[in-house]
Amino acid sequence: MTRYFFDFTAQGQSLYDYEGDEFLNPKGACQYAEVIALYLKHRLSGEWDGWSVEVRDAKGRKLLSLPVAMAELMVA
């Protein structure tokens, strides 16, 4: 299992995930990021427009940056 981190970023702002979650592979972590982005898009009345969910590995390498606005396109 590998630990992945899910940060939220927008122009000039970042909310960092210091705990992360463990997944068997990067694909699982990216799928989880898609679910997070979809949730933010539909549950929080536009407050997250302009934000992205970024997936990073334990070494800090960015694997994915998914705009919240694009969530449905990725999951579909």
Properties at a glance:
single chain; 76 residues; alpha+beta; 2 helices; 30% helix; globular
Q: In summary, what is this structure?
A:
The protein has 2 helices and 5 strands. It is an alpha+beta fold and 76 residues long. It has one domain (2-75).
Q: What's the number of domains? A: 1
Using the alpha-carbon principal axes, give the shape: globular
How many distinct beta strands?
5
Average of per-residue pLDDT values: 89
State Rg: 12 Å
Tell me the fraction of residues in β-strands, as a range.
35-45%
User: How does the major sheet shape up?
Assistant: 5 strands, antiparallel
Note poorly predicted spans: none
Percent helix: 25-40%
Q: N- to C-terminal separation?
A: 27 Å
Q: Strand-and-helix sequence, N→C?
A: EEEHEEH
Count of alpha and pi helical runs:
2
Structural class: alpha+beta
